[in-house]
Structure formats: C-alpha cells, structure tokens
Write a structure and sequence with these properties.
This protein has 163 residues and is mainly alpha-helical. Helix content is 36%, strand content 9%.
Length: 163
C-alpha cells in the first residue's frame, strides 16, 4: 500500500467525492488507448505516453529517460519526499531525527536503509522543500550534472507547509 492510499483513507468523504468528480472525463474513458488519446487531445504538446503499473515504475522510467536524454546522471530531489522504492529516490526519503542531515538550506544525502548500494548518494542531490536558496545552491554546485529534478507539488509525507 502506498502513502497516498493512507492519505486518502484519512480524507473526509466530501473531499473524496469532489476529487472523483474532477477525475471523471466527460463521455467516460474505455481503454488505456482511449485515455491516452484524450490526454493528447487536451495536451497536444505530449507526443508519447507510457502507462505503468505503479508509481515506482513511473518514477524509475522518468529518471532513466531523463538520464538517457541528457547524458547526465545527477538527480535532484526534495528531502523527505517519497517517489517509490527504487534506490536512487529512497535517498533522504525519511531521515530519522537521530541522523545529522545538514543545515536546512543544504540537506545531506542520507541512505536510511540497508541494502542500498554504496555510491547511490553520489548522483542523488537533496534540497529542502519550498526553499529556493537550497535549490539554487545545489543547481550551481552541480551545474552540468543534473539530469532531472523530481518533486511532488504537495508532499505526501510532509503534512502541511506554509509558504
């Protein structure tokens, strides 16, 4: 079960109903092909779609595609964000409070689980959520190395944040 499922389980019924209503495409959607065609109709800039079985696969393919397209290996991610159980994106996903994680503006890349290959953090760089100076610092420090920046616009693990 994913973190999002846990979030939805705690969501009030009225909010769930509102979300369902927003998700319904007029005329209904039959097959995955129908859905892909509807998405491309609404967003003509999308040339190709790939549906996956899970968010883990989706993020894994997104990082792989970004690395292939840019010929770079660096991944920039937000501290505390969960993007699936692949090694690169598990870096600093849930940093225990007993581990020194660096200052707010420059969190360290922390591996918090056994079994993750040594060197995984070499190309995974972490920024603080909603902290522009942290992002600017890492982009400048790793200029020319970053293949992608993966983030959740609303962090599932983060609770509420003020801007």
């Amino acid at each position: 079960m994913s973190f999002y499922d846990d979030y939805i389980a705690k969501t009030p019924t009225s909010e769930k109903e509102a979300r369902r209503a927003q998700a319904i495409i007029p005329g209904g959607v039959g097959s995955a092909t129908d859905l892909a065609e509807e998405i491309q109709r609404r967003y003509p800039v999308i040339e190709m779609l790939r549906f996956t079985q899970s968010g883990v696969e989706a993020t894994m393919y997104a990082v792989r595609l970004a690395r292939a397209a840019t010929k770079k290996y660096g991944v920039l991610k937000v501290e505390g964000a969960y993007h699936g159980a692949n090694d690169i994106l598990l870096v600093s996903a849930g940093v225990p409070s007993t581990v020194p994680a660096g200052p707010d503006w420059m969190p360290s890349s922390i591996v918090e689980s056994e079994g993750i290959q040594p060197g995984t953090t070499e190309h995974t760089h972490v920024v603080q959520f909603n902290h522009i100076e942290s992002l600017e610092y890492q982009l400048k420090k790793h200029e020319g190395e970053i293949a992608c920046f993966i983030l959740e616009p609303c962090m599932t693990n983060g609770g509420g944040y003020s801007s």
